Amino acid sequence: MSMLSIFNVSGSAVSAQSQRLNVVASNLANADAVAGPDGQGYKARQVVFQTVPMGTEATAGVKVKAITESNEPFKRVHNPNHPSADAEGYVNYSNVNPVEEMVNMISASRSYQNNVEVMNTAKTLLLKTLQMGQ
Amino acid sequence: MFAQMTSGLDFHANALVLRAERQRIIASNIANADTPGYVARDLNFKEALSQLTGVSGGELPKLKMQTSAGNGTTATNPKHLALAGLRASELSGSALGYAVQSQPSADGNSVDLDRERASFVDNSVRYESTLRFINGQSKTILSAIQGQ
After folding, report:
1. What residues of B are in contact with residue A2 (Cβ under 8 Å)?
2. Does residue B20 belong to the interface with chain A, where contact is any CB pair within 8 Å?
3. B45-53 and B2-31 helices, crossing angle to 10°
4. Record: contact B27-A6, CB cut-off 8 A
5. Please, what is the Cα angle at B64 between B61 and B65, to 5 degrees?
6. Span A74-107, pLDDT tens digits
7. How far apart are CA B11 and CA B63, in angstroms?
């Protein structure tokens, strides 16, 4: 039943994509977060995917290799009355770009759907194979 | 005599194994659609089938007794029969190739998701048709045996 490993491959992809979606959710939730007392605001996070060999040569799953933090400058807003304002009267907000995150979210959700579709097809085919000769 | 009756079944069984293999390769491509640097693979079905059965395109399948040992199983008794089927190592060289990039991407990933999805559907339909061939042939043999 060589097709059974499709569930491992697509399952790894679904898990990786859901982790990506998790990171997007965390970024969007913190899009308007203000920097703490140390002056460091929330840094947007990104997942890095990596191929994982599974069994034979051309069978490859995927995993999240690392989660990196963006080094973009923080968004600075002049608001001297804000409790978190620094000596010059600027407030540091997170460096999350909401447009980028929305695009990332759509891409993650489409990839997730694709892999679920693959698993459904594999399941249908395997069930038909089990009925062979009946 | 029985080998003659089931030789057609053997041919379709080989085709079915290859279809499953291709399905797995395409699933890997779809899983890695967002992985930087991943190179999409594909199976040349015609090439792979003729490697496996020793039949080149256009000819009718010849009678061939499968005697290949291996297949991931180990014979612990000399009376054990070898299982017919595909070994992963048999699939190599010209049959397993790389998909040609139609729109190069900046991160070096060569998966074309539209094409992969189309190939996936195409392959699953062909898998099912091979299954139906096998089912039909086994029903024919069964009705011949029962003679009713």
Report:
1. 17, 20-21, 24
2. yes
3. 140
4. yes
5. 150
6. 888 898 898 888 888 888 899 999 999 999 999 9
7. 9
pLDDT beyond 60 at A64 = yes
B91 and A56 within 8 Å at the Cβ level: the answer is yes
Q: Is B28 on the interface with A (CB under 8 A)?
A: yes
Least confident piece of the model among A85-89, A108-112, B5-9? B5-9
Task: Specify the DSSP element, H or E, that contains B21.
Answer: helix B2-31
pLDDT tens digits for range A111-127: 999 999 999 999 999 99
- Burial of A110 from C-beta contacts in 10 A (0-12 / 13-18 / 19+): middle
Instruction: Decide: B24 and A9 in contact? Cβ < 8 Å.
Output: yes
Q: Which residues of chain A lie closer than 8 angstroms to B127, CB-CB?
A: 125
Q: Using an 8 Å CB-CB cutoff, list chain A residues near B27.
A: 6, 9-10, 118, 122
Predicted TM-score (pTM) of this structure: 0.75
